[in-house]
Design goal:
By secondary structure, the chain is of the alpha/beta class. The chain is built from 14 helices and 18 strands.
C-alpha cells in the first residue's frame, strides 16, 4: 500500500536568506511520522505572490496527500500567502464572516479599535474552512483540492504548533493516517568527521528498506538521523531502538547524546553531578564558548563565567599569564593555553577551566603556526591537559570548530576519556 506523503512550504524572506532558522517543518515531520505520513519535501519561499503560487502549484502537482504552508498570513504588506494560494487554486479570496467577527471581538476585548488593514486576515480562498488560532489573531485555513488536504497556517512557532495539534493532526488521523508508522531518532557526536561517522554506521547497519539514515554535519559535530518504518508503533519502535543501540556502540565515546540533547546539556549534567562549576578563558574564540554555554537556560548553575583576553597584555592582566612566558612561547602555544586555563580557574574560583588560543585567520599564519592552529587548555586542579588542533575553513568555521572541541574536551575530562587531537606537553623550557 502506498504510504501517504506530505509537503511543507515555509514562507518568508528571512527563512530563505538564513536570517532565521526554519523549525516548523522538522517539527511537523516528527508529528506526522507516528501517523504513518512521511514529510518528503520541505521548501522555503520568498514573500512573493507569484513565487508562492508557483510553489503551491508544484506541491499540488506532485500528487502528495498533504500540503502545509506556514507563514505569511498576517496583516502586513509582505504577508502574501493567502493571495498566492488563491492564485494557484484559481479561486478568489472571500471574507469569512465568522473570522471577521472573531477578529473584531479580539480587538474590542483589548479596548482597541480594529485597524482597517487587519480585515485582510478574514480573507480566505473560496471553499476553505477557517482553522482557529488559540495563540494569536491570524486564522489559518484548510481545504481539499482533489486528493490533497491543504493547510495554511501562521508561521509563528507557538501558533503553528498549537494549530497543528488541535486541528491538523485530528484531520490527518481521520482522513489520511497510513497503514504503517514512521518513527525517527538521532545520535549526536563530537570530534569525528562526517566521513568517519558514515563509515562506522555503514559497518553496523545493513541495507534495510525499513530503515533510513542521514548525516548532518556542523563544525566539530555530526548528527546521525535514523528513521524506522514498522507495521505499528511497537514494531517501528523496536526497529529504531535496535538500530540506535548498534550505531551508538559503533560511535563509541564520540557519541555524547541522542535526539535533541545538546553538548552543553550533557556538560551541565556532568558538572552538577560533580558539584563543580566551569569557567572559560578565551582568545581566538572571542567569547563563543561562554555564549554557547549561556545559551542554555539555567547555565548559571554550573557556569561561573568567562574571560575574553584577546591581547597579550589582557592575558597577563586578567589571567595572570606571565609576560616572560608570552615573550618566550608566544600567545599561540601550549604553555599559554595551560596558563590561561590555570588563570581562569583561579580568578573565577571554579573547579574546571577551559582555555582557547589560536590563529583564526584569514591572516597571521606562518609555516610553523598555520591559520587554523588552536591550542585548548584544560585543568580541574588535579589533571591538566593541552591539545593541539589545526581546524579547517574560514575564520568563522575555525572559531566554531574550536568552540565545539573545547566543550567536548571538557566532557572527556569529566568522564575520564582520552582527549581529542594531539596532546601537547606544556613547559617553559620547551619554547
Amino acid at each position: 500500500m502506498r504510504r501517504p506523503e506530505a509537503t511543507f512550504l515555509g514562507i518568508g524572506g528571512e527563512l530563505v536568506s538564513g536570517r532565521r532558522e526554519e523549525r516548523n517543518g522538522p517539527w511537523l515531520g516528527a508529528q506526522l511520522g507516528p501517523l504513518g505520513v512521511e514529510l518528503t519535501t520541505r521548501v522555503l519561499v520568498e514573500d512573493d505572490e507569484d513565487r508562492i503560487a508557483a510553489a503551491v502549484g508544484a506541491a499540488l502537482a506532485s500528487g502528495c496527500d498533504l500540503v502545509v504552508v506556514a507563514g505569511g498570513l498576517g496583516p502586513t504588506v509582505d504577508d502574501r500567502t493567502r493571495q498566492g494560494v488563491a492564485k494557484a487554486l484559481g479561486v478568489p479570496l472571500v471574507v469569512d464572516e465568522g473570522v471577521l467577527a472573531a477578529l473584531e471581538k479580539r480587538y474590542r476585548d483589548r479596548g482597541l479599535e480594529m485597524p482597517e488593514g487587519a480585515r485582510v486576515m478574514a480573507l480566505l480562498p473560496e471553499g476553505a474552512e477557517p482553522v482557529p488560532n488559540p495563540k494569536g489573531s491570524a486564522s489559518g485555513f484548510v481545504l481539499r483540492h482533489r486528493r490533497t488536504i491543504f493547510f495554511g497556517l501562521p508561521g509563528v512557532p507557538a501558533e503553528f504548533r498549537a494549530m497543528v495539534e488541535r486541528s491538523l493532526i485530528p484531520r490527518v488521523r481521520r482522513e489520511l493516517a497510513g497503514s504503517s508508522v514512521l518513527l525517527a531518532g538521532a545520535l549526536r557526536t563530537a570530534g569525528l568527521t562526517e566521513v568517519e561517522v558514515a563509515r562506522r554506521v555503514g559497518e553496523v547497519l545493513p541495507e534495510d528498506p525499513r530503515l533510513r539514515t542521514g548525516f548532518y554535519a556542523l563544525p566539530g559535530e555530526v548528527e546521525v538521523a535514523l528513521a524506522a518504518r514498522g507495521d505499528d508503533e511497537a514494531d517501528a519502535r523496536d526497529l529504531l531502538e535496535t538500530a540506535m543501540e548498534k550505531v551508538a556502540a559503533a560511535l563509541g565515546d564520540a557519541c555524547y547524546g541522542r535526539d535533541a540533547t545538546t553538548l552543553v546539556e550533557v556538560l551541565g549534567r556532568l558538572l552538577r553531578e560533580r558539584g563543580a562549576r566551569l569557567g572559560a578563558a578565551e582568545s581566538c574564540t572571542g567569547g563563543l564558548v561562554a555564549k554557547r554555554v549561556t545559551d542554555l537556560p539555567g547555565a548559571s548553575e554550573f557556569f561561573a563565567g568567562g574571560i575574553v583576553a584577546y591581547a597579550n597584555e589582557e592575558k597577563t592582566r586578567f589571567l595572570g599569564v606571565p609576560e616572560a612566558l608570552l615573550d618566550r612561547c608566544g600567545a599561540v602555544s601550549p604553555e599559554t593555553a595551560l596558563a590561561m586555563a590555570r588563570g581562569a580557574r583561579e580568578r573565577l574560583g571554579v573547579e574546571v577551566a577551559v582555555a582557547t588560543t589560536g590563529i583564526a585567520g584569514p591572516g597571521g599564519g606562518t609555516d610553523t603556526k598555520p591559520v587554523g592552529l588552536v591550542y585548548i587548555g584544560l585543568t580541574d586542579g588535579s589533571e591538566e591537559r593541552v591539545t593541539r588542533h589545526v581546524f579547517p575553513g574560514d575564520r568563522g568555521t575555525i572559531r566554531a570548530w574550536a568552540t565545539t572541541i573545547a566543550l567536548e574536551q571538557v566532557r572527556r575530562l569529566l568522564l575520564g576519556l582520552d582527549p581529542l587531537g594531539e596532546v601537547s606537553e606544556a613547559g617553559e623550557d620547551r619554547c
